[in-house]
Amino acid sequence: MGKARRPVQIIILTLIVILGGYAIGTAVFGGEKGIPQAGDKPPAFNLRGLDGQVHNLEKYQGKALVINFWATWCKYCVNEMPALQTQWEKWKDQDVVILGINTGEDDLTVANFVKQTGVDFPILFDKKNEIVRKYGVVPMPTTFFVNKRGKIISIHQGELNLKTLNQQIATLVASN
Amino acid sequence: MIKNTKCECGHQNPVGTVLCEACGKPQYEEADHSSSELLEMRYDGVARRSQRANPNFIDKIWNFFSSVKVAVYLISITLVAAMLGTVFTQETMFVKNFDPSTYYKQKYGTIGEIYYMLGLSDTYNSWWFILLLVMIGASLVICSLDRVLPLYRALSKQKIRKHMQFLTRQRVVYQGPVSGRGEEWVNRAIAPLKKKGYRVHTDGGALLAEKQRFSRWGPYVIHIGLIVFLLAVLFRGLPGLHLDEHYWFPEGEITQIPDTNYYLKNEKFTVEYYTEDEMSDEFKQKGKIVPKLFETKAVLYQCVASCNDPLKEPELVEVDRHNIRVNDPLSYKGLQAYQFDFEEVTTLRYVQPTLVDQETGEVYGKFMLRMNDPETEYDVGPYHLKLKDKYLDFGLDENNKPITKSGEPNAPAFLFTITGPGLPEDGGQFIYFPFLQQQELFGQDKLNEALGGINHKLRFDMIAMEDVDFIHFTSFLNIRIDRAMPFVWTGLGIVMVGLIMGFYWQHRRIWLRIDDGILTLGGHTTKNWFGMRREVSSFLETMGIEVDEKSLDNGGNRS
Predict the structure, then answer these.
(1) Is the complex ipTM higher than 0.85?
(2) Residues with Cβ < 8 Å from B295, sequence gap 6 or more?
(3) Each residue of B259-297: pLDDT tens digit?
(4) In 3D, which of A87, A71, A85 has the Cα closest to residue A172?
(5) Nearest CB to A54: which of B137, B310, B374?
(6) Smallest Cα–Cα separation from B319: which of B263, B266, B252?
(7) Rounded to an integer, what distance in angstroms lies between the CA atom of residue B125 and that of residue A27?
(8) Ordered alpha helix ranges (H), B118-242
(9) Where would you find the membrane-spanning parts of this chain (chain B) (predicted)?
């Protein structure tokens, strides 16, 4: 018994530090909750796309992502669509993917809109507004720039024009 | 300084042992036997595990947590902190957006500001409060380990023949002559002691009788329970274990409860207001409308298949049903839904227009047109309707192109291509506004004329009240999941068992030895000394020794 004393002490103290540290850590950083900020990982999603496929972060692992939240009734979202399309065409060969997450609208509306504007980057349906809530999106549009290592580099609220979008993607591609 | 810890009986004791582990002779005392003070019987005089001659860094930490004094301080500080947390409303109690940095100052003034600055506005989730709990936990674990093992050792191998000093310095002591040989007397003593429920061990002219030893483990059982309790409290923040959120549930809709496998349908929401006669004068003057009762007829569903597959509809199974009222939540397997608030809304859910032939007046039938996710093809009578476009909030942009202004069905409009008898081969277009006033406002007829094709042949009519369905209310429910609660209760249950063990039983021991016809008896109990005295005196009586109960008490009126 006497010889086992030291290892027992060390094991127990280590366990207390680990468990205690975890408990305090979750208290301080609020666990899973909270709106993602620059530097965080983007929250997971699993959404149906207009193409009938499932889209999630795993699918785009290793690619830089521009996650854009939009709706057809949002004027600024509609305005920035051509810019997104242009940049998608420009950057897609460099492993940049633009994802347009539509918020709460149905297939017909979205399909008609996409047909009209001619955008061809992946459009995803967030019918229950679940992902919008997870990403803490308040004003529309909001765009998240995620680098190839799966880290949010910046979050842009409001309309993006061609120039700023180009800059943002350039920074994104350069970022590690 | 190294002390010689070897007792005269030959036993090598660990550092810090008060009484020799074997014979019970007090250590570190003058050899002249002059002291007659009662012995310190805590942990049977055995050294706590952590007491060592040369403590190093780890030992020092260990000793810190091993100290009961430290534990008492920790508990006291935690109690005070917990009390301070009850002074003002905690941040976690607010549901709707509020800013704690200004709230406390505005509501409570400078004190409120200080309260917020000190972090007391979120006491129970603050790092320092959790740190205190963790430290109490560490103290519980280390205190128990440090004492329970030595005590176990001391109690499991007790020497029957104890040192004379050990016996005479117990609180219950008797000394007197007995007749006959010592061994015989001891053998005669076994039966009456057994009758009193003791387990008796003898060693020639010495005897040890012991009962209810298990009650000594009560405090440690309490500790184990408290550790379970603390772990449950500290880790309820783990994903899936705890949820306390407020969500909106529109009437008639099956809404998923975020981050869970559950869906809740608000079948119907009802609110009843106090009539004017029922209200107090004060309220009447204020002209307030006060709700008397609000109730959500709720159905809880659980997703059983294709829950996370966005390509399929989730398969739901009804698991519970309850009319949720204030203080009467729906409760299912740790999930609770409390009525919290409601909002009166008027949102169009669906319309059931009737297709009518303008020329013949013939009615072809009804079809259901949902605002969200409508079907795209309908067959009504001989006609085929294809939904081409949909505007929830119809408007025109600068170029006079139709757009939708919001995601709410404020001014819904539906554009159909209709094919069938009397219509052109490739069909005619028809735009339909469910709201009558909007048909006029936006000029439905004119638009349809411009679109051409139908040429006044068909009409969409709303005939009955039931053809329109609105969401009238949306109910605000507080969804709570606390899967840590069973662990909390288990912990508390164990604590209760420990308390009972310690409270209702006492560990009693009687040692005796006979040297040259003189009986020396010492008795020890964890509590209830009067009972112990009585038991010893009645035992001596059966052995033919008359002795007054009170005279057995060896000084000290501690009870």
Answers:
(1) no
(2) B269, B270, B271, B323, B324, B325, B339
(3) 888 999 998 888 888 887 777 777 777 777 778 888 889
(4) A87
(5) B310
(6) B263
(7) 6
(8) 127-156, 164-168, 182-195, 218-234
(9) 70-88, 127-149, 220-238, 487-505
Q: Give which of B380, B388, B395 is closest to B428, Cα–Cα.
A: B388
A5 contacts in chain B (CB < 8 Å): 49
Which segments of B234-284 are extended strands (E)? 242-250, 254-256, 262-273
The pair of structure tokens assigned to B115 is 């309260």
How many CB atoms are located within 10 Å of the residue B486 CB?
11
The nearest alpha carbon in chain B to A130 belongs to: B258
* DSSP output for A103-168: ES--HHHHHHHHHHHT--S-EEEETTSHHHHHTT--SSSEEEEE-TTS-EEEEEES---HHHHHHH
Question: Within 13 Å of residue B209, how many CA atoms lie on the same side as its CB?
Answer: 22
Pick B258's closest partner by Cβ from A19, A54, A133. A133
Enter the DSSP assignment of B510.
E
Contacts of B133 in chain A (CB under 8 A): 23
Residue B27 to residues B39, B49, B306, B556, Cα–Cα distance (Å): 11, 17, 73, 22
Nearest CA in chain B to A56: B310
| B9-48 core/surface letters (b: 16 or more CB in 10 A; e: else) | eeeebbebbbbbbbbbbbbeeeeeeeeeeebebebbbbbb
Residue with tokens 């009484």: B19
Mean pLDDT by 10 residues, chain A (176 residues): 70 89 77 70 87 87 89 88 87 86 88 88 88 86 88 86 85 79
- Closest A-chain CA to B392: A73
pTM: 0.72
| Cβ contact, residue pair B238, A31, below 8 Å | yes
